[in-house]
Amino acid sequence: MTRLAVTPPAPPRLATSDPAVEVGLHRIFCVGRNYAAHAREMGADDREPPFFFTKPACVAVASGVTLPYPRATSNLHHEAELVVLIGTGGADIAVADALEHVWGYGAGNDLTRRDLQAEAKEMRRPWDMAKGFDASAVLGPIHPASEVGHPAQGRITCHVDGTEAQAGDLSEMIWSVAEIVAHLSRLVTLHPGDLIMTGTPEGVGPVAPGQECVVAIEGLGEARFRYLP
Question: What's this model's pTM, rounded to 2 decimal places?
């Protein structure tokens, strides 16, 4: 019998709206430029379809944490996002069937080392170190779709030290959740525990050491964290 010589950390587990229930996390997929106003503020044509990038699952942290300010950056940005947890996997999923694969929804913050991202864009290099660094996905509790339905509208905001920095509505997404799930399933086979961060409204901006950042989505709670001074 073979033995495992190196044991990796256990996969992360996410809180849900029921304190007695947790869900496992497999992978994190992120959608770029899925709100027209944000696409424009990042210098893109708002008719450009969104694209996907990834974060390692191990960068996920639960709402309410206090974190050290990330290394290798002096321009850390918040990005308020609706997150979607896949409950039933599949490939080549039809748009009409896509929501049947969703277990639930929550609020999330796709933290970004914007200076590293700008450098990567200029040099035509991958974004991995701008997006996939330690504690770069702050996630609120996941609410089962069986209880909250499939939200297609609702206010989404981000506040930094109590001041509103981002505000939008889920109805402003260029691609709907069903379209995102269907399209992604044509690129990779989806599995239970896959999480999709669905893009951010306009107003992305910095979070400095010592500041608190709170993403909130109507009916889905908060993803909250604070950086150490």
Answer: 0.95
